[in-house]
Amino acid sequence: MNNLIFHLRDAPVSAWVGIVIVAFYAFLAICAPVLAPYAESVSVGAQYQTWTSAHYLGTDALGRDVMSRLIYGARNTVGIALATTFLAFTLGASWGLLAATLGGWFDTISSRLIDVLMAIPPLIFALLILTITGTSVVALILVIAILDSTRVFRLSRAVAQGILTMDYIEVARMRGEGMFWLIRKEVLPNAAAPLIAEFGLRFCFVFLFISALSFLGLGIQPPTADWGGMVRESAKLIAFANFSSWESATFGLAPLLPAGAIAILTIGVNLVVDWVLHLSSGLKE
Amino acid sequence: MSDTLLDMKNVMIEGRSDRQWKPIIKGVDLSLKRGEILGLIGESGAGKSTLGLAAMGYTKGGCRISGGSINFDGIELAGASNEALRQLRGKRIAYVAQSAASAFNPAFKLINQFGEAPVQHGVLSKAQAQSDAIELYRKIRLPNPETIGFRYPHQVSGGQLQRAMTAMAMACRPDLIIFDEPTTALDVTTQIEVLAAIRDIVREYNTAAIYITHDLAVVAQMADHIKVLLRGEEVEQAPAREMLSNPQEDYTKSLWAVREFRRAPRPPRDVNETPLLVVENVSAAYGPVKVLNDVSVTIKRGSTVAIVGESGSGKSTLARVIMGLLPPSKGGIVYDGTALEGVGSKRKRGLKRHIQMIHQMADTALNPKQRIKDIIGRPLDFFIGLKGAAKDARIRELLTLIELDPDEFMHRYPSELSGGQKQRICIARALAAEPTFIICDEVTSALDQLVAEGILRLLDRLQRELDLTYMFITHDIATVRSIADEVVVMQHGVIVEQGTNDDIFTPPHAPYTELLLSSVPEMDPDWLSNLLAERAEESAQASLT
Amino acid sequence: MNMNSIQSIILKRLFSGLLTLWIVTVIIFAAIELLPGDIATEKLGQAATPESLAAFREKFDLNRPVVERYISWLGGAVTGDFGISLSNQRPISELIGQRTANTFFLAGYAASIAVPIAVISGMMAALYNGSVFDRVLSGTTLAAISFPEFFIAYILILVFSVGLGWFPSLANVDVDTSLGERLYKTFLPAMTLTLIVLAYMMRMTRAAILNLLALPYIEMAHLKGIKRWRVIAVHALPNALAPIINVIALNLAYLIVGVVLVEVVFVYPGLGQVLVDAVSNRDVTVVQAACLIFAATYILLNLLADILSIIANPRLLHPR
User: Fold this and answer.
1) Span B277-506: which CATH code?
2) The whole model's pTM is what?
3) Which residues of chain C from 118 to 147 reach within 8 Å of chain A, CB to CB?
C-alpha cells in the first residue's frame, strides 16, 4: 500500500481522473444526509417537475426530489455493492489461496466445484436463487457474493500458484514454515497488487450486476433509492424526450441520470484498476 | 574471394524502455569477408544478438537502428526499404535461432518449412526444394534424411531440430548466415554433434557466418576471428588463435575466470570418520515417471561432492529427495548416523537446520517483497531462536561473512541487488541456520564468469572457515574439476560412475563419462577437429573388430 | 494411433461437459426442493383447505419421491416438455416455445453483426498495433465494460428512435411478423447487444493475434524473407484459429445471457422476459425451464468452443 501512495506522484492523467471520480462518489455516499436537500423517499412536491430551482433535477412520479434520491442512491447502491464485494473477496481469496497452498485433494475438489458453479451464467443462477430466497437485501448480498467469490477463487488461486512455483517458497517449505506463515508472509505480499486490481474489477461487476437486477425489479426494492431501480421507474419517460425545449428535454433524460451515474463510477474504478495493473506488471508500456 | 561481404560502420541501436530511447549498441564496426566466420562473444546484455540481427537490417520490436551504416555486398541495409530487405533475407542472408523448438512453426512439416524460402524467393521449385532438403539433411547427418523432413517440429528432438534449422538456413545457399547461440540450450553431448554439423556445412558451401555465443571455447572451434562485446561496445577483435593465446584486454581475460579458478588445498582428514550423509539405495518418481533408480552416495564430512549429469539425469531430483521435498519410493537418507524421514515436514527442526540448499536462480529464490534483513533474519529466528538486537547483530555478522557491507545492504530489497549479490544473500540465508551440509544446485550457472568465480571463491573460503560439507550439483565439468573431492556421474536417474576427483578425471572412464568429459569444449581451437578425428578412428576400429 | 489420442481428448472433454450439464440440471431441480416450506402452502396461502392443498399437490405431481420426480422432469425437459406453470397452469412449452425462438433469433442477429466486425477489426488492430485505430479500440473497450447494458440501450433509443425516428423503441414482434420487419424492429436491441460484446471480442482477438505475432516462429518467417501477407495468412492464422474460436464462443455465451436485460428494455417477447416475470411471480416451474435452457446453451457453446480449439491445435493433431 505504501508503494501505491508513493507511485501516486507519477500517476498518469487517466489514473487521476479515476481517483477523482471515485473520491467524489465516496464523498457523496458518506455525506449523503448532509448533502441531499430533501429526504430519500418522501414526496416533497408535485410529480414530474422540471429542472428548476428547489428541485434542480426535477421530481419523479411520486413527487420525490430526484437529486436527493441520486445522492442517497450513491450510499445505497455503492454501499451494498461494496459490502458484497468485500464478502465475495474474503470468501474467494482465502479459499483460493488455501486451495493453492494446500494443493492435493482439497484443491482438486474445490476447483471442480467452482468449475460447475461457473458453468452456469451468473445472472441466470442469481435469478434462480432469488426466486427461492426472495429479494431481501441480505439475500441479495449473500447470493451475489457467493456467485462472485467463484471468480475471485479462480484468480487468487492462479496468482498464488504462480507465486508458489518460486524457489523462495521452496526455501520456506524446506525450512518447515507453517501454512499460514507461508500464505501471510510469502504469498500475500506478492499477490497484493493483482488482488487489489481484481477487487476493483469485481466491484465493477457486482455493482453493474446489482444495478441490472434492480433494473429488472429483482434487486434493491423501493422505496429505497437505488440507481438501477430509478432507471426502471423513469424508463418510460425517455419516449417523451424532446429537444425542442429545455423542459421537455430534461424530462425525457430522467432515466439517463442514474444510468450515467452508474457508468461514470464504473469508468472511474476501471481507470484506477488499469493503473494498478500497469504498476504491478512492471514497466510495460 | 577476398572481397568484403559485410561492412558495418559505427552502428548504433537503441531500445525503448520507460518511454525513452536507450542505447544498446554504441557505435560498433564489424567487417566480414566472403566465407569467413566471425565469433561474436559477450556476456548477457552485451548486445551480441542485437548486433547479429542488425547484420540482416533487422531489429527486435521496440528497437531501432539509430546510426551508422550496414553495407552488405554493396547494398546499404540501414534505412533500406522493407521490400529490399525482404528480398535479401532468407535468400542471401539467413538466420539460425537459439531455440529451434520455438522457431519452427508447429503447424507445418519440417520439409515444407525448408522449402518455403527457396520457393517464395523463386530459387527452387517445390519438388527441387524437397530433393534438396533431403540432400542437405544427409549432409548435416540427420538420421533418416529421406523421411525426417515429413515430421512435425514437436516430433523431433532438440539437437536434430537445430540441425534441421541449419539446413533450412542453407536452402537458398546464402552468402551469410547468422547463428544466434544455436547450441546454448543443448546438452554438451548433443552440442558437439550440432557444432560439427554446422562447421562442416558452412565450410563446404564457403558461407560466411556470424556465430554468436557466450562460450569462448565453443566459438574457438567455429570462428576465424573473434570479437568481444561488452555493454554494446567492442572490447577487442583478433584472430581466434591469437585471442585465446594472447588476449589483450583484462575483460577478455576475465571471460575464462571460472576455468582458471583452483581452490585452496585441504589438510588431510581422518579416513575412519563416520560419513556425514549417506544416500542409501534411493529410488524416486514423479507420479508414474521414475527419475531416480537405486542411487547410493556417501558424503564425507568437510568434503565437496560434485553431482554431474545432463538434463534429465536426476541430479536435481536427488537434491529434492535429500531436502525432503520428494519422499523416496525406496531407500533412505542417513544424516550423521540418524535416519531422516522421507517427508521433510516430519523431520525435527534441530536436524533440519543442518541441511541447507542454495538454488540456481537467486532471482526466484528471494522473496521480492522482503528486505534483506528479513530474508536472513527468518532462519535465525526460526532455527536459532534469535530475536531483536541479537538477531540484528548476527545478520550483520553474516553479511560481513559473505563480503557485503551490512549498513548498505540490510535494508535493501532483492530488486536493488546485482545477480552475484543476490546469490551471496542466498548463501547468507543458508549459513544463518548454522548448517553442516549445503546443497549447491547449479549456483553459478546463471551468472557471468567473473561473478561466478567470486561465488566459488567465497564458497571455498566458507568451507575452510566453517568446516562445511558441500554437495555441488552442476553440468559444468570445469567447475567440477576445480572444486570437487569426489565426483558422481549420473545419467537417466542412475549413477554411472563415482570416485575421487582424480579417479574420474584420469582414464580409463566409464563409457558415458568418457563421452561427457570429451564433449566439453576446450579452449583449444583444434579441440573439435581432433576429437572428431579420434571418434571417427574409434568407430572405424570398432566396426573392424 | 494418431486419431486415437485426439479422439480420447475430445471424448474426455465431451464427457466432462455433459457431466457438468447433468449436475446443473440437478442444481436447478433441487432449487425447488429448497424452498422454505411447501410449494402448495406457499402458493395457495395459509387459508387453503386440506382438500385444495391435496388437489394442488396432485396436479403438480408433488406426492412422488424426489428422485422419481427428478427423472420424469429431466425426461420431459429433454423432449421439450417442462410441465405446467404454477401461476396460470398452462403447459410451459406452450408459453416459452415461440419466445425461446425469438431469443435465439435476437442473439443470432447480434452475433452475425458482431462476430465478423470484431474478428476482422481485432486483427487489423493487432497488425497495426499502436495506431490511432488501436487506441480508439482500447478507449471503446473501457466504455463497453463500464456502461450498464440499459445505459447503452437508452442512449440508442434516445438517438435513433426518439431523436431521429429511424427505428422503433419497442420490439414487439409476433409469429406473423415477416423476416424483414422482424430485422427492422429488432435492430436497436441487436445493436445494443452488438455494442456490448463487440469491444470485448475485438480486444480479445487483438490480444490473441498479438501474442501470436510475438512468437519466435513468426519472427523466423520474417527473417526468411517471407512476404508480410503470407506470414499472416500462412504462419499466423492457422495457429490463431483456436484462440479466436474461443473468443467467439465465450462472447456468444455472454450474448445469450445479456439478452435478458435487453429484452426487458425493448419489451421484446423473448425467454428473458418470461424468466424475469416468473422470478417476480415466484413461478418456480417456469424459472426452472428458462434457467435450464439458458444454462444448457451456455454450457454447450463453451463445450463446442473447447472441442473446436482442440481440433485446431496442430500439436494434438499430430502427436509424437
Assistant:
1) 3.40.50.300
2) 0.81
3) 142-143, 145-147
